[in-house]
Amino acid sequence: MAEEKSYKYVIIGGGVAGGYAAREFSNQGLKPGELAIISKEPVPPFERPELTKTYIDLEVNPTLANIYVCAGTGEAKQYPNWYKEKGIDLIVSTEIVKADLASKTLVSDDGTIYKYQTLLIATGSTNIRLSEIGVQLQEADVKNIFYLREIEDSDELSFAMELYVQRGKAVVIGGGFLGLEISSALRANNHEVTMVFPEPWLIHRFFTAEIASFYEGYCANKGIKIIKGTVATGFSTNSDGEVTEVKLEDGRTLEANIVVAGVGARPVTSLFKGQVEEEKGGIKTDGFFKTSVPDVYALGDVATFPMKMYGGMRRVEHADNARKSAAQAVKAIKAAEEGKKIPDYDYLPYFYSRFFDLSWVFYGDNVGESVLFGDNDPKSPKPKFGTYWVKDGKVVGVFLEGGTQEEHKAIAKVARAQPSVESLDVLSEEGLSFATNN
Ligand code: FAD
User: Fold this and answer.
1) Does residue 267 line the site of ligand 1, with CB under 6 A?
2) How far is the CA of 301 from the centre of ligand 1 (A)?
3) Quick count: other Cβ atoms within 10 Å of Cβ 80?
4) Beta-ladder partners of 99
5) Residue with the nearest Cα to atom 46 of ligand 1?
6) Which of 20, 47, 136, 426 is the most buried (most CB within 10 A)?
7) What element of type H or E holds 358?
8) CA of 374 to the centre of ligand 1 (A)
9) Are 248 and 227 in contact (CB under 8 A)?
């Protein structure tokens, strides 16, 4: 007879959103035994963005304990004991393999049945595999091809980085956020690094050509080689099955003993297909992260929610939204229990990245015309520059490299307030002071 457990609240997924939701439940008041977090991962919720930052830095040699949530917002870290003290059942290394939302029943891979009154879906994203985008390989047969999402992925990559440190030749496939951070980490750890991607510039979906030109120049100065306009099509291996070469579509081959793929991610929604309304690849929610099914909420990467500031529905695959959507959902659940209502989610998009000694942040929307300000010379000893995006005569988005905390607050304020501007020239001339004096 299968074991059956029953909880008032169940969170599926022990990632960023799961961890921050637990924090909010605790803030709002939680009785022991009311909440379970069921997570496929073997470890408590941690700040996933750190996998490509501090956690992969062999010099810093950080431990997992350094990056438990809520390290990312400067609040107390939730060590395993924290969950015990709060009476939260943190059930790790356990995958939910079946979800029946009509009967409020979940089944895990060890056959346990979980009943809930309220469900929070925080299953995040999964990495797109190279074989899914047309690269010819039997992934299981080629050693030293890495993806980064879980602690284990990062540990395995670190091990390979140490192993090949004397003759490390790494190829990073993908020119997005992850590709850039991973390339920097590999280079900082003395590997020869080549990045390969089909787009005309780095982080093409988000960076302007001018922003990308700075980071490409900076990477080149650090010794990273960038090959654009082509894709990897296959690999050569030695008799041990270890990768030795990456074959490119344009006929070139690149020597490699480490390959890291950062070619995108997709939300993990398959358990709920046909049971809940979806939109834009995610689970459709309202401004309280409530789905189309009563008592079921979706947070973080999987949620497609109404973007109050800009209209329309969006899915946001970034840590800040994972944290804030989790807090919003839990506040809404608790308020509803008391017959109260809270304001709709009013999210100001915030993305960030750090690598080498660089650090950028972005607030708002990257639509309309853009204008660069500041010093974006990759050879500058202390480069500091930014970009404003202007739509319908209003500043709607701001990017800043090398800013201070105060400056970040100022640009966030501008992106939220959307002040009118006479012309792009004004922004170009005033630069950062347009935001700091506003
Ligand atoms: P996740 O944190 O991915 O958590 C999902 C959890 O659900 C995982 O524990 C997973 O195992 C679990 N799960 C899934 N299915 C099941 C199941 N059936 N049963 C049980 N458990 C399940 N964002 C930024 O803003 N800035 C950055 O610099 C940045 N860097 C990143 C670097 C890396 C390497 C990665 C992978 C992501 C990065 N991100 C960054 C994105 C950010 O980490 C995500 O947006 C955030 O983690 C989303 O939180 P989440 O809780 O929705 O999903």
Assistant:
1) no
2) 7
3) 13
4) 106
5) 319
6) 20
7) strand 358-364
8) 34
9) yes
Residue with tokens 């979906």: 205
Alpha helix (H) residue ranges in 189-292:
209-222
Q: Could you tell me the distance, in angstroms and rounded to a whole number, from the CA of residue 290 to the centre of ligand 1? A: 20
315 Cβ inside 6 Å of ligand 1: no
pTM: 0.97
**Protein residue with least CA distance to atom 38, ligand 1:** 49
Q: Is the CB of 301 under 6 A from ligand 1?
A: yes
> Of 18, 1, 2, 150, nearest to 89 (Cα)?
18
Q: First CA to last CA across the chain, in angstroms?
A: 66
- Residue 146 pairs in a beta bridge with 260
Assembly ipTM = 0.99
CA of 161 to the centre of ligand 1 (A): 23
Peptide bond into 219 cis (omega under 30): no
The single-letter DSSP state of residue 377 is -
DSSP for 47-63 reads -GGGGGTGGG-TTT---
- Measured CA distances, 209 to 201, 266, 322, 356 (Å): 7, 26, 28, 21
User: Which residue lies with its CA nearest to atom 23 of ligand 1?
Assistant: 318
The 10s digit of each residue's pLDDT in 285-340 is 999 999 999 999 999 999 999 999 999 999 999 999 999 999 999 999 999 999 99
- Report whether residue 95 contacts ligand 1, using a CB cutoff of 6 Å: yes
